[in-house]
């Protein structure tokens, strides 16, 4: 079956493409790098021709509030219109667990807007809400850094490996549309500060992680359960310690090296 993967060159997208190809599907990555731009519409009609399923794992280049909202609104609107023209039978999108519980976050408001456009479109859909990726740890830590301290609210946190997210997205994409939301999360629950401390210490990062109940997550205050899924979530298999053991450490920025 032909599957178009919007954002197919990204972290999740490249894993989705590889996995679907391994299973014998015609997986076509679509991104500005491959001549497809969902903001301008360039290349969209061509890549969707003959596609049974579209998987949207694209992301906004900017996380600034207005820019990210504009990205997900414009891109999703263009994509759904092109899918209707092409007769696509299943739209799968990757969203975030708890996105509707943190209205203070501009990024999460944009994901809610994306989900709303999808739910209001006539195209059969599946929305996969994932928790934070293990791979996102460095960006979280950098965003929360204050001098040599990393201030993290000690709320519940259940992150997942990108490989497990990609597997879940593929399984859902080749099945019947759910016309609803499914949650996916990692196999272990942590305190958010504990997760960041474990990750940085495994990388010999000298920053001190401080549990700070008033610390903000990309500008938003988090409730105890804001980012964790409910009991029906599908759980990934990769444990954080195993992932840490297998993943190359990111380069330490010169200022801290
Ligand atoms: N980070 C997390 O912890 C987390 C948790 C749950 C869900 N999510 C969601 O997961 C999704 C994928 O995230 P990711 O980390 O895999 O993203 P990523 O690695 O940043 O990749 C983004 C992809 O989007 C493409 N893209 C950017 N602008 C585009 C445009 N105008 N038209 C078409 N494609 C465009 C990029 O293409 P180029 O490389 O060609 O620019 C790239 O392939 C996002 O929607 C995010 O909200 C993230």
Explain what the structure shows.
The chain has 257 residues and is of the alpha/beta class. Helix content is 35%, strand content 19%. The chain is built from 8 helices and 12 strands. The strands form 3 sheets. The protein has a 7-stranded parallel sheet, with helices on both faces. The radius of gyration is 18 Å and the shape is globular. The termini are far apart. The C terminus is likely disordered. It binds NADP nicotinamide-adenine-dinucleotide phosphate (NAP).
Shape: globular
Distance between the termini: 48 Å
Approximately how much beta-strand content do the residues carry? 15-25%
Strand-and-helix sequence, N→C?
EHEHEHEHEHEEEHEEHEEH
Assembly state (oligomeric): single chain
- State the strand order across the main sheet: 2-1-3-4-5-9-12
Helix content: 25-40%
Determine Rg (CA atoms, Å): 18 Å
Unreliable residue runs: 252-257
Mean of residue pLDDT values: 95
What is the strand and helix layout of this fold?
Layout: E1 2-6, H1 11-22, E2 26-30, H2 44-48, E3 53-56, H3 65-86, E4 90-96, H4 106-119, E5 125-130, H5 137-143, E6 145-146, E7 149-152, E8 156-157, H6 162-173, E9 180-185, E10 190-191, H7 192-202, E11 208-211, E12 234-235, H8 240-246
Parallel strand pairs: 1-2, 1-3, 3-4, 4-5, 5-9, 7-11, 9-12
Antiparallel strand pairs: 6-7, 8-10
Helix pairs in contact: 1-6, 3-4
Bound molecules: NADP nicotinamide-adenine-dinucleotide phosphate.
């Amino acid at each position: 079956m032909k599957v178009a993967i919007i954002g197919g060159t990204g972290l999740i997208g490249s894993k989705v493409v590889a996995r679907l190809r391994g299973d014998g599907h015609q997986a076509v990555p679509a991104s500005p790098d491959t001549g497809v731009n969902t903001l301008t519409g360039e290349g969209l009609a061509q890549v969707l021709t003959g596609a049974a399923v579209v998987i949207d794992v694209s992301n906004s280049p900017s996380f600034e509030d207005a820019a990210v909202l504009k990205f997900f609104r414009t891109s999703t609107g263009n994509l759904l219109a092109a899918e209707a023209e092409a007769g696509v039978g299943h739209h799968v999108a990757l969203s975030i667990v708890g996105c509707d519980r943190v209205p203070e976050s501009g990024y999460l408001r944009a994901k809610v807007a994306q989900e709303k456009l999808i739910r209001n479109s006539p195209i059969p859909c599946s929305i996969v809400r994932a928790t934070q990726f293990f791979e996102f740890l460095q960006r979280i830590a950098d965003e929360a850094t204050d001098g040599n301290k990393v201030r993290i609210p000690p709320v519940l946190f259940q992150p997942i490996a990108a490989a497990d997210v990609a597997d879940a997205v593929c399984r859902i994409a080749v099945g019947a549309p759910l016309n609803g939301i499914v949650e996916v999360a990692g196999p272990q629950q942590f305190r958010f500060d504990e997760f960041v401390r474990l990750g940085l210490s495994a990388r010999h990062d000298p920053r001190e992680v401080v549990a700070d109940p008033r610390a903000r997550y990309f500008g938003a205050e988090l409730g105890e359960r804001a980012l964790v899924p409910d009991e029906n979530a599908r759980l990934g298999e990769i444990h954080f310690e195993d992932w840490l053991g297998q993943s190359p450490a990111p380069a330490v920025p010169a200022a801290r090296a």
